[in-house]
Amino acid sequence: MNHGPGEVIPLKAANDVRDQLRRPVRDLRLSVIETCNFRCPYCMPEDAFPFGATEGSAFRLTFDQLETVVRAFVRLGVSKLRLTGGEPLLRKGLPDFIRRLTAINGIEDMALTTNASLLARQARALHKAGLHRLTVSLDSLDPKRFAALSGGRGRLADVLAGIEAAEDAGFERIKFNCVVQRGVNEVDVLPLVERFRGSGHVLRFIEFMDVGTCNGWSRERVVPSGDLLKRIAQHWPLRSLQPNYRGEVASRYAFEDGQGEIGFISSVSAPFCGDCQRARVSADGQLFTCLFASAGHDLRGLIDAGEDVLADALAAIWRQRSDRYSERRAEAGEAEHVEMFRIGG
Length: 345
Fold this sequence. Notes:
Blueprint: E1 27-31, H1 63-76, E2 80-84, H2 94-101, E3 109-114, H3 123-129, E4 134-137, H4 143-149, H5 156-169, E5 175-180, H6 189-196, E6 202-207, H7 225-233, E7 238-240, E8 250-255, E9 261-265, E10 278-281, E11 286-288, E12 297-298, H8 300-305, H9 307-319, H10 329-332, H11 340-343
Parallel strand pairs: 1-2, 1-10, 2-3, 3-4, 4-5, 5-6, 6-9
Antiparallel strand pairs: 7-8, 8-9, 10-11, 11-12
């Protein structure tokens, strides 16, 4: 049976769909738009993706289609949903769409990842719509370096204003993600920790990953999480914390003085493929079963066939999944990967 947009339905017993490595699907990352107002060099460098080259809604899924995707995944066991992009706040009508998603029985946790440059004008509407969790990408607190890391397109002041607006709107425990690159923004690590310690928010450092094919990745530019942990602990002693749930990608540490926690996402130095429970769907309807995939599964025809058909197809695809790229990076060679902006990281 198919259900109308926004309709509240009773939760059916989720199928225990497992892939070839016995991993269930519990987490869906749904891209609502394929473009961004930044051109961060490690994600969407402007020389490869000039403005105008990716914009356009001709192949973008409608909100009805996106909702069908979510409902189908819920039937497979998904309970965590993250809206991504591109920059999701560029998608018109997003608060109304979020309101529809909050009516889906089975979604226990919903979040949105943003660069926060447009957040000041939308934070209150997003919170009112039912979104209560935000993740903000923030690689530097130095205005000049921030501008460079956004491809010359971002202003730190706009992001800080967006964060303040989100706090005022009622968003608590915001997560901040910083991608650390050797020789680029290592100097920002300690200032970021100092800024967010005791704020009630959570700062997470991400190892520079070889997502996509045009970000100039090399292992020499990766700063291992272990090195950052030692560096931070010299200033503020830390103790390890247990994961909040199986499959959590960030290793968590609390400040010994009770001033909150930080996290480390270590896909290069400490791969976590064995517990990966994530599926990713791009704004144009491609399913990717790994962040480092080279190709996706086209869902458009299946989506239009309805929730039942789509759920059956998704289950079949997931059961064939055997991705473990991060664990096999050394032997994978120079395989092409889908660009990160298409699937939201």
